[in-house]
Structure formats: structure tokens, C-alpha cells
């Protein structure tokens, strides 16, 4: 064999290129919080708290009531504890035997114990309430996100950056795991801090401002650090999104053959690692900033803390404060410091959460704005006529339209075949006909009703689509066929759809027939061949008995017997519906009543098979090429 260059020669000689750097412009490319001021960001905390309470309230009112009551109890306990401590200090620090002093201080010490116990109980109950809320809150937000994405207009997915914003919103869902805990701890610490500060102010008004100054730098530092973290998170969103997708594509057994037999593993691992390292580089670049913030805030906090203790010592030494009160002040200072630190830590965590929740909320709002709003009219009767009038559709960011002014009329009983070169607009045309996309110009009508003004659900209830790339759901065989429209509690219609594509024998051979899980990677799951999967996709559409049946390359993976069977079935049921077949196998267009040939989104030829074969146009050329082997 006279091969000059083989795959083996090439291997290893050229280092693989790193993954492409993704930079995009447009409405989603701007960090929504990039321009917000520090004050504005801090002011979000009450809004976030309100939002968390409102979300939790919808889920479990009792638990929310407990969560709100517990901080109050903690505050009361802290106040009682400090007051009782002050009362206990006086006898403890006067003259007399230890027994006498303890005896006198005993009632106050018992109150101290009870108050401490109450605070503990309140903390435990709050944790219990938080555990009641968090799992369901996470499920709610997670499901809301999934539902929002499922319900948007399909065209939203073609907008640059939409999926990256979805990735950013996922972080909001992840933060719901901790946000109730953060909120609860923040509230408890806040109440405790207010109580302890009040006690300190009573003991000596000078101490409170000093204490505030001691913890404020930590607060500012924590918030600045959270902002840096968020900036990194934001800068990494696009890479993380691609990495997540590539992770699935690289590791799923579905594409394992291709990955192995084409020696892709090394490159994929290199690629995955490169993307991760790119994210790491951004994260590491921010480390000096966070170090500076940490060091400066700790320094400032240390200076003010020394000043606080110094002031307390000075007050005691100069007799400006009684010894017993000074001792109480030590406890109050410690309590306030601990509470203030908790306020700061949990406030910063809440602030951090608020950044991601804002992304999540912004995405949910955006998705909701992109949900279909086409009008409430319903297509009640089975579609008898579909008309396209100069329909045009252009994908966002593309110069030329994918469908560039198509006019067509389809009536019940018609079988239309759509042919044309790759990229000529065939699949896009089917999306316009089914109302998955709305025409930018011109219109598509069903029974005379403009799809732009019709509830899309009433349209999709009547459609059955076998797309070019169909889903292989990790569900049982039965659900893979009935998905979305279980009609009966018995399997007769399912078997009917299975027989229509000649799959009965293969399904009966599966370990548990229709109950077999079609996911090799799951325990007990089975796998089908490519052609068998395509038969499942066809039976899924046929099971629906739709008024509009669209098959986009429905038999590309089937053996001749399967293909023949499917087309026979299509012909047999054609009278009751409109049927559209998109295909590159031009022989299959013989069954059509009408064939349209698309070129660059326009119909350039149309007619019956016999007419087009002799017309000397693109159809005849493609047919000749397909038989020239
Ligand atoms: N989701 C999308 N976003 C942006 N452009 C798209 C999208 N889908 C298709 N296009 C573009 O629209 C044009 C028509 O694509 P379409 O999938 O309709 O062609 P087709 O005739 O079905 O091709 P094929 O025979 O390869 O299936 C192509 O230029 C394609 O790049």
C-alpha cells in the first residue's frame, strides 16, 4: 500500500492545541454585579433574607416560625445570662468564705445555667427547623430551574451565553444547601449581638464603639473576599460550563467506542485538565488579593481589640468601673465579640449566597420572560391544513436566514418529502411547521390560525416528531415509547407501536421485556443497537397517533427490512394525518405526494418523484450521485 502518511506517523509529532478560549459579547457577557458599589452589595443582605424567608415560608410555615422564634429566644437567654452574671459577680467578688460567697451567688448562677441551657435548646430546635426546610427548598429551586429551562422558547437556546447563565444559576441552587443555615445563624448572632451590646452600653458606653471597630475590619474583609470569589466564579462560568459538558461526553459509555477507537482519550484528558488549569490560573491569580485583604483586616481588627481590652483594664484600674462590673464586662465583651464575629461570618456567607441567588433569580426571570407568550387560542380540531406564507427564519448571530421565504400548503392525507443538501434548512423548516420556532417574517398557520398567536401546547399535542438526533432516555422500554403521553394502563397500544417498527422480537428478548431499563450503565439495564434505538424513536412518534407526523431521517440506521416496514406503516396511516419526511435517501421520496427541494433555505424545485427525476435539477443530480458508486 502506497500510503505516505498514516495516523501513526502523525501521532505524537504535533502537540495538541489547547481548548479554545471562549469569549463572547452580548447581553450575557456583562457581570451583573461588576458595576455594583460595595454599599449596594451589602444592602442586598436584607433582601436576601426576605427572599429566603419567603421561599422557605412556601415550603414549611411551622419550621419558619420556629426558625424566627429561636433567635429571639437566644437573645432573651443572652440578656438573662448577662444580667444574672452581673448579679452573681457581686457576691463572688466581695469578702467572705468561698462557701458563703457561692451560697449568695447560687440563685443567680442557677439562672445563668438555665439561660445557657435555653440558648442551647433554641440552637438545637433551630437546626431541626433548618433541616426540615433545606432539602425541600433545594428540590424546589432545582426543579424550578429545570422547569424554567424546559419551558423556554426553543430559540432561547440559540442565544449566545444563555447556557452559561444557566450554569451560573446552578450555583444558586447549590447555595440553597447552606443558605437557610447561614440565615438562621446570622439572625441568632444578630439578636445575641444586640443584646450583648446593650448590656455593654449599660456597663460603659465607651466599650461598644471599640468592640464594633474590632470586628468591623473582619466584616469588610469577609465581604471583599466574597466579592473576589464571585468575580473568579464569574470569570470561570463559560469554561466550567464547557468542561461540564465535555465531562459527560467523555465519560458516558454511549460515546465510549468512538473515544477509544479514535484514540481520543489522551486528548480529552489533556483538554479536561487544560480547562481545569485555566480556571485554576484565574483562581490563583486572585490569591494575593485575598491575602492582602485578610492581612489588612486582621491588622486593623487586632489594633482595635487591644484598644478594647486596654480600655477595660484602664476603667477597672482607675476605679471608673467596679470590679464586679468589670468582670461582667469581660463576659459581655467576649459574648459580643463572639456574636459579632458570627454576624460577620454568616453575614458574609449570606452576602456570598446573595450573589449566586441574584444570578439564579436573574436567570429564572429571564427564562420566564423567554417562555412562550403566543396567545391563548387553541387548535382544538385535528389539523387539516398547514400553510406557510413566505416564512423566514434566521438564527441569532447568523447573517443569512436558514429558511428564506418558503410558501407551502399541506393538507390532511398529504405526504410531503423535503430534500436538499446539508445545511439547506430542512430541519429548520420542520421546526417552523411545528411551531418550535416562530417565523421572523411571513407566517405559518394551522387550520387558518397563525402559530404566533396560538398556545403552543395545543399544537404540540397534535404532533409526533422523529428528529435526526433523538433521545435515548435512560428509562424503561415502555416509557421510552409512551414518554409524555401514557394513554392507557395496559400495554396493547405500546405493542401496536412496537409492531409498527418490527421491534417485538428484540423487546421480547430483553431480560424483562417492556420493563427493561434502557441504560447499560445502570444496574440491571440493557442496551439496544443504533437501529433498534431508531425504531424506538419511530414507535414513540407513531404511538402518539399524531395529526402531524414529521420524520427527519427516520431510517438512517435501520436495516432494509426495518426501513421498508416503517415506510409501509407511514403509507398505511397517511390518510388520517399530514406526514412530512425529511431524507437524503431520495428513493424513499417515491412514497411522497409532493417533494420540495431546498437550497439555501429556499424551495428551488418541487413536484412528484417522476417529475423531478427528469427535471434536470438538483434532485436529478443528487439522485444520480447516490447511485454512482
Ligand atoms: N441551533 C442552531 N443555531 C444556529 N444555527 C443553526 C442551528 N441549527 C441549524 N443552524 C444553521 O441553519 C442552517 C440550516 O440548518 P438545518 O439544520 O436546518 O439544515 P438541514 O438541511 O436540516 O441540514 P442536514 O441535512 O445536515 O440535517 C445551517 O446553516 C446551520 O448551520
Automatic annotation (TrEMBL):
InterPro entries: AAA+_ATPase (IPR003593), ABC1_TM_sf (IPR036640), ABC_transporter-like_ATP-bd (IPR003439), P-loop_NTPase (IPR027417), Type_1_exporter (IPR039421)
SUPFAM superfamilies (UniProt xref): ABC transporter transmembrane region (SSF90123), P-loop containing nucleoside triphosphate hydrolases (SSF52540)
This protein's record includes keyword Transferase: no
Membrane-related topology note: Multi-pass membrane protein
Membrane-spanning ranges: 64-86, 106-129, 210-230, 293-315, 321-345
GO molecular function: ATP binding
Cell compartment(s), UniProt: Cell membrane
Main location: membrane
Pfam family, any one: ABC_tran
Keywords: ATP-binding, Membrane, Nucleotide-binding, Transmembrane, Transmembrane helix
Record domain ABC transporter: where: 386-625
The protein, known as: ABC transporter ATP-binding protein
Organism in which the protein naturally occurs: Streptomyces lannensis
Amino acid at each position: 500500500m502506497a500510503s505516505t502518511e498514516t495516523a501513526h506517523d502523525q501521532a505524537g509529532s504535533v502537540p495538541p492545541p489547547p481548548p479554545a478560549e471562549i469569549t463572547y459579547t452580548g447581553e450575557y457577557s456583562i457581570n451583573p454585579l461588576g458595576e455594583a458599589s460595595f454599599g449596594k452589595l451589602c444592602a442586598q443582605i436584607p433582601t436576601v433574607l426576605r427572599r429566603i424567608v419567603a421561599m422557605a415560608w412556601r415550603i414549611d410555615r411551622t419550621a419558619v416560625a420556629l426558625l424566627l422564634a429561636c433567635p429571639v429566644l437566644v437573645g432573651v437567654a443572652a440578656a438573662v445570662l448577662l444580667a444574672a452574671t452581673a448579679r452573681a459577680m457581686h457576691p463572688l467578688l466581695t469578702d467572705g468564705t468561698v462557701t458563703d460567697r457561692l451560697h449568695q451567688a447560687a440563685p443567680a448562677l442557677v439562672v445563668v445555667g438555665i439561660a445557657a441551657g435555653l440558648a442551647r435548646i433554641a440552637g438545637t430546635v433551630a437546626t431541626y427547623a433548618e433541616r426540615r426546610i433545606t432539602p425541600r427548598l433545594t428540590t424546589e429551586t432545582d426543579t424550578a430551574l429545570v422547569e424554567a429551562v424546559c419551558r423556554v422558547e426553543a430559540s432561547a437556546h440559540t442565544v449566545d451565553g444563555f447556557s452559561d447563565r444557566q450554569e451560573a444559576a446552578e450555583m444558586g441552587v447549590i447555595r440553597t444547601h447552606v443558605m437557610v443555615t447561614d440565615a438562621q445563624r446570622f439572625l441568632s448572632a444578630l439578636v445575641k449581638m444586640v443584646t450583648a451590646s446593650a448590656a455593654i452600653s449599660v456597663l460603659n458606653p465607651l466599650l461598644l464603639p471599640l468592640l464594633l471597630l474590632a470586628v468591623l475590619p473582619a466584616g469588610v474583609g469577609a465581604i471583599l473576599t466574597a466579592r473576589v470569589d464571585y468575580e473568579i466564579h464569574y470569570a470561570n462560568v463559560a469554561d466550567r460550563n464547557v468542561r461540564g459538558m465535555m465531562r459527560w461526553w467523555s465519560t458516558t459509555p454511549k460515546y465510549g467506542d468512538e473515544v477509544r477507537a479514535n484514540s481520543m482519550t489522551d486528548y480529552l484528558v489533556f483538554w479536561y485538565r487544560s480547562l481545569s488549569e485555566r480556571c485554576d490560573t484565574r483562581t490563583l491569580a486572585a490569591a494575593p488579593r485575598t491575602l492582602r485583604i485578610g492581612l489588612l483586616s486582621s491588622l486593623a481588627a487586632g489594633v482595635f481589640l487591644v484598644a478594647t481590652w486596654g480600655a477595660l483594664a484602664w476603667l477597672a484600674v482607675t476605679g471608673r468601673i467596679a470590679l464586679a462590673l468589670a468582670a461582667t464586662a469581660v463576659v459581655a465583651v467576649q459574648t459580643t465579640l463572639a456574636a459579632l464575629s458570627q454576624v460577620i461570618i454568616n453575614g458574609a456567607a449570606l452576602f456570598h449566597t446573595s450573589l449566586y441567588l441574584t444570578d439564579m433569580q436573574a436567570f429564572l426571570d429571564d427564562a420566564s420572560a423567554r417562555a412562550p407568550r403566543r396567545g391563548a387560542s387553541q387548535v382544538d380540531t385535528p389539523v387539516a391544513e398547514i400553510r406557510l406564507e413566505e416564512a423566514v427564519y434566521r438564527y441569532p448571530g447568523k447573517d443569512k436566514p436558514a429558511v428564506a421565504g418558503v410558501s407551502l400548503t399541506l393538507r390532511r392525507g398529504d405526504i410531503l418529502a423535503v430534500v436538499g443538501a446539508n445545511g439547506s434548512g430542512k430541519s429548520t423548516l420542520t421546526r417552523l411547521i411545528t411551531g418550535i420556532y416562530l417565523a421572523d417574517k411571513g407566517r405559518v398557520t394551522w387550520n387558518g390560525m397563525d402559530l404566533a398567536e396560538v398556545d403552543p401546547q395545543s399544537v404540540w399535542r397534535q404532533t409526533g416528531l422523529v428528529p435526526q438526533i433523538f433521545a435515548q432516555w435512560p428509562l424503561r422500554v415502555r416509557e421510552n415509547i409512551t414518554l409524555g403521553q401514557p394513554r392507557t394502563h395496559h400495554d396493547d397500544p405500546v405493542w401496536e407501536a412496537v409492531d409498527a417498527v418490527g421491534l417485538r422480537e428484540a423487546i421480547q428478548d430483553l431480560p424483562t421485556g417492556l420493563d427493561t431499563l434502557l441504560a447499560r450503565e445502570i444496574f440491571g439495564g440493557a442496551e439496544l443497537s443504533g437501529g433498534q434505538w431508531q425504531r424506538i424513536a419511530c414507535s414513540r412518534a407513531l404511538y402518539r397517533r399524531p395529526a402531524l407526523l414529521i420524520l427527519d431521517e427516520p431510517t438512517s440506521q435501520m436495516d432494509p427490512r426495518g426501513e421498508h416496514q416503517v415506510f409501509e406503516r407511514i403509507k398505511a396511516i397517511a390518510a388520517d394525518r399530514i406526514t412530512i419526511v425529511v431524507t437524503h435517501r431520495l428513493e424513499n421520496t417515491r412514497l411522497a405526494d409532493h417533494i420540495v427541494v431546498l437550497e439555501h433555505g429556499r424551495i428551488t424545485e418541487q413536484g412528484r418523484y417522476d417529475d423531478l427525476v427528469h427535471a434536470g435539477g438538483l434532485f436529478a443530480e443528487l439522485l444520480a450521485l447516490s447511485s454512482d458508486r
